[in-house]
Write a structure and sequence with these properties.
mainly alpha, two-stranded antiparallel ribbon, 2 strands, 67% helix
Length: 458
């Protein structure tokens, strides 16, 4: 029975959709994968925007003002992406699968199996260090800020995300050290939680995803591309069943999507369809962004989200997570469209987006601490504690400032934050690279190094 890929190839042959001399202008764009950095930078920026939304504009999170009620422009599909942090984390994970498998698949397609396996092992090793070391440093920074009491204003503010993610100082420095060790450990355990830097919940799943790439390609690296793709597609659908047992039902599906897109990137299909990019790119992007806009609560309040809710109950796998099913599919469709579209690749390879991609991980790690400290100080500098009531309880909080204060403060804060993340990227990150390289030289068995245990030579 012919495979789906062979049937598609036969159709393309019959339809005579081949690269032509006029397609050569697309070839360079389709060979460039720097777009992944640009998209990663946008994802990091929107994760930060989602936390700002949760802090200062929670009304955007719901799709309308009441069931079948009026909706603000910012509550509508596309515009509400500023509140969709889970959707942008899904983009992160898809890109992780894409980037981590790209070089190994290129070597495998060229018949260099051993170098491909070596690349897989090395990249997985480096990935672990390059995730854990910066995350630990960011946790220590936030822990120190906590102990100095610099989060006190955020804790007393009326900004929801700020006061719910601002930890209290420890009772003593001895207890503080214990709390720090606990925070670092629980960042990388089942149901991850970091009280000093809440966004780090996703890092375990990024690390988990890189291990999925290693395991999946280790098994399939010797297969022909079409059979490898079919096997990864099987893993994709299978992961919807067992993914929940690993703490997150969406990680496997997103990572395996990234591997499939890396295979697609090395094929001729993007070039064959390049001339049709202006036709299929707009509707696919609109569909992707619409799915990514699916709200995390009160989905039946707006007609568009209620429609997606009803379709979720019809088509979603049993272990899928409601609030993340459609955003996950949207992230997958978006990255697929970019892989197939030379126009989107060029747009995402703009030098400013590439710079944003370069600072994306520092931005992800630092924005929470900066929001709970510098942004809070700037916004509430002239505020006075006011009695407020919430769920029957009375609190003394700093009320949110008016729009003019936000218009003045936000550009200043963004300048400070982006400068800090840029300095982190050029001054701090290289030290993590040095540590990783040193660990690699010490731990890898290369050249004339003697193994710890003697090796039999029979």
């Amino acid at each position: 029975m012919p495979s789906a890929l062979s049937m598609l190839n036969a159709y393309l042959e019959k339809a005579a959709i081949h690269p032509t001399p006029s397609d050569n202008g697309y070839r360079k764009a389709l060979q460039d994968t720097s777009w992944a950095d640009g998209l990663r930078g946008i994802a990091a920026l929107f994760v930060m925007f989602s936390h700002m939304t949760m802090a200062f504009a929670r009304w955007i999170v719901i799709p309308s003002y009441g069931k079948n009620g009026p909706a603000h422009l910012m509550q509508r599909p596309g515009f509400r992406l500023v509140a969709q942090g889970a959707a942008w984390v899904a983009v992160f994970i898809v890109l992780s699968g894409f980037v981590n498998s790209l070089k190994a698949l290129k070597l495998a397609r060229a018949g260099h199996i051993e170098p491909a396996l070596s690349n897989l092992a090395t990249s997985s090793f480096r990935r672990s260090f390059r995730l854990v070391l910066p995350a630990t440093a960011a946790t220590i920074l936030s822990w120190f800020i906590t102990q100095t009491g610099a989060y006190d204003t955020a804790k007393k503010s009326d900004a929801y995300w700020l006061y719910t993610t601002s930890p209290n100082p420890s009772s003593s420095w001895g207890t503080a050290v214990e709390d720090l060790v606990h925070a670092i450990r629980t960042t990388w355990t089942y149901n991850p939680e970091n009280p000093y830097d809440q966004p780090q919940w996703a890092l375990l799943y990024l690390l988990q995803g890189s291990m999925f790439v290693f395991a999946a390609l280790l098994v399939t690296i010797n297969l022909a591309p079409r059979w490898r793709i079919m096997t990864i597609m099987l893993l994709y659908f299978w992961s919807w069943n067992w993914g929940i047992k690993l703490g997150d039902p969406m990680v496997g599906a997103n990572v395996f999507t990234g591997i499939i897109l890396a295979e697609l990137n090395h094929s001729e299909y993007p070039l064959r369809f390049a001339r049709f990019s202006p036709l299929f790119t707009p509707p696919l992007v609109a569909c992707a962004l619409g799915f990514m806009s699916f709200p995390s609560q009160f989905q039946d309040w707006a007609p568009w989200s209620d429609l997606l809710l009803r379709w979720y109950w019809r088509i979603a796998p049993q272990n899928a997570e409601l609030m993340r099913f459609w955003p996950t599919l949207g992230a997958q469709i978006l990255t697929f469209t970019v892989v197939m579209s030379p126009h989107l690749r060029r747009a995402l390879s703009h030098r400013w987006l590439l710079w944003l991609g370069k600072i994306s991980f520092p931005l992800y790690l630092l924005h929470g601490s900066f929001m709970r400290s510098i942004l809070t100080w700037l916004l509430f500098a002239r505020s006075k504690l006011t009695e407020m009531e919430e769920e029957g309880h009375k609190y003394m909080r700093y009320p949110l400032p008016g729009a003019p204060t936000f218009l003045v403060v936000m550009p200043i804060f963004m300048l400070i934050l982006l400068t800090a993340t840029h300095l982190w990227a050029i001054k701090v990150e290289p030290h993590f690279g040095t540590i990783t390289k040193t660990a690699e030289e010490v731990m890898f068995l290369r050249g004339d190094k003697n193994p710890t245990l003697p090796v039999r030579k029979d």
